[in-house]
Amino acid sequence: MSYQTTDFGMFSSAGNAAVAEIVREAQELAGVDGPVNPVQQAINYMLNELEYLGKEHFEEADDTAVREAALAEFFKEDA
Question: What's the rounded Cα separation, in Å, for the pair 9 and 62?
Answer without folding.
Answer: 11
